[in-house]
Amino acid sequence: MSNPMFDVIEADLKELNEGLIGAVTSPVDLVTEIGTHLVTAGGKRIRPALCLLAAHGGPAYSLERLLPLAEALELIHTASLVHDDVIDEADTRRGCITANAKWDNQIAILSGDYIFARAFGLIAEGDYGNYVSKRLAELVCNLSVGEIIQDHTVYQAVKDLDNYYNRIQKKTADFLEICCELGAFVGGMSKEDVQKLAEYGHCIGMAFQITDDLLDIQQTSEKIGKPAGNDIRQGIVTLPVIHALSVSPDAAELEGIVTDSAMTDEMVARALAIVKATDGVEVAMAKVDEYLDRARSVLPDSLAPEIREAFVMVADFIGDRDF
Amino acid sequence: MSNPMFDVIEADLKELNEGLIGAVTSPVDLVTEIGTHLVTAGGKRIRPALCLLAAHGGPAYSLERLLPLAEALELIHTASLVHDDVIDEADTRRGCITANAKWDNQIAILSGDYIFARAFGLIAEGDYGNYVSKRLAELVCNLSVGEIIQDHTVYQAVKDLDNYYNRIQKKTADFLEICCELGAFVGGMSKEDVQKLAEYGHCIGMAFQITDDLLDIQQTSEKIGKPAGNDIRQGIVTLPVIHALSVSPDAAELEGIVTDSAMTDEMVARALAIVKATDGVEVAMAKVDEYLDRARSVLPDSLAPEIREAFVMVADFIGDRDF
């Protein structure tokens, strides 16, 4: 995501970046070096930004009070990406070399553990009460379970849409929901408004992941910086593919391809062509619009105009996203 | 460790085992299956047992109150072993197949993350206050940092004993210290007695790890179930080796071997012979005795006789350990 929608919290995000480096500074130089590499490697701070925006909705905004929580959210995201990169044997992420490539798998696994633990340490220091700790522990559980489900069902062409929605909820939407919810909670918003912002976070998270899945099908490889059809190649079926498996006259051929773990580049291209020949992309785009309409409509009335505007810009941005 | 020393808390440990299975039970069957495999794979429950014993020293022992903490300690240990086994590409542990061998590396990494997060979830549910959460987050940080230091200094023959003691403290002693400390703390012991039990935990932890390192040098491969000289082979120098590097007439030859990542079995055998020809084993054993004497001497006077006796038996057991 680009920056204008977060202009209203620009100064807060600058302090957050400094805080993140402080959070991974250790008496052991190597650990500091690894941690600093990870927290400065191009992260867009979407999660802490949502948390801080939501907190601005409350009557008693204090950056000092919010920072440990916002930092912990970014660290949890960072740690889970570090472990994902080990699993995917990725060499680069956001244009930077990954920890597993720069050091090795064991350093990357242990650094991920270290960063997860630093996040929970910050939460303890922030003294937010058990509810916040409990929700963050649930979040990390769900992130792991979401990945386990995904890894376990690759090349299986599960046609059940509930399975898909459940997976992207655990993988993406729960995280954005918690960022908004806990920001609003710690910012002191009413219980009702906390729930509204949580729903906003859920909706933009679902929309964001469906868009991400769509880009993998629609875009050229050059534009998204990885091969198009990458999900299909990895055996992950997304909304347009699941739709095509129901409606395409070539559904049997498509199913044969997406369940073949030895599929060739030609087969991936053929699968993409079958999906694009259906209305799968349009169906997915309509679902994105539905989630974003809902997100805009649940924003609490109590928000200050500039905060509401920022939240609306985030939703607009996801709808317009083409990279 | 064998059981008699924990007889006094036998009923508690039975409930703990049931609780651990409950703690890893998930709506996703595969996650439950993996979690159950991990928490029933031969763990000796030393960490939760120390926690429960220490809590029995307090005026207000309540198993119900202590269980989430004791379970969390075992889960943190389990998760760190799961990640260690991925790093070491181990197929078995305690006679059971490892998660990476039974499933694969990605499942093992994600399950480790899941179990770490469950531990922090239990701590939040237990409502012990920030001090306990903060100490456990520090523990996981230290475990990771200890491993990172160890991995980063393999085949380097660091002769500095402080480096060795620092490493085994982070790897083992800090964990046993925290088990005793937090058990005593939640059990309601006085601040002074909490500190005494923390020191007891530190001392038996240091003694336990030095003994472990000694066994790798002294025992036959059959007895310890892995090749003798395994640490040397992996480039990890332990107390007797560090001592030999200072005092042996063959120190230069020994250093040449332990810094050679391509060492052969013959070279490992020669390194073991050089170490055994010095008083390195005796020096290490004397250090173990020193730690255990200190451990027995710091036990608080306020302990009930059967609890004190159990703590003394643990120390005796570590001193007599030959497997």
From TrEMBL, chains A, B:
<dbReference type="GO" id="GO:0008299">
    <property type="term" value="P:isoprenoid biosynthetic process"/>
</dbReference>
<dbReference type="InterPro" id="IPR000092">
    <property type="entry name" value="Polyprenyl_synt"/>
</dbReference>
<dbReference type="InterPro" id="IPR008949">
    <property type="entry name" value="Isoprenoid_synthase_dom_sf"/>
</dbReference>
<keyword id="KW-0460">Magnesium</keyword>
<dbReference type="InterPro" id="IPR033749">
    <property type="entry name" value="Polyprenyl_synt_CS"/>
</dbReference>
<keyword id="KW-0808">Transferase</keyword>
<keyword id="KW-0479">Metal-binding</keyword>
<protein>
    <submittedName>
        <fullName>Polyprenyl synthetase family protein</fullName>
    </submittedName>
</protein>
<dbReference type="Pfam" id="PF00348">
    <property type="entry name" value="polyprenyl_synt"/>
</dbReference>
<comment type="similarity">
    <text>Belongs to the FPP/GGPP synthase family.</text>
</comment>
<dbReference type="GO" id="GO:0004659">
    <property type="term" value="F:prenyltransferase activity"/>
</dbReference>
<dbReference type="GO" id="GO:0046872">
    <property type="term" value="F:metal ion binding"/>
</dbReference>
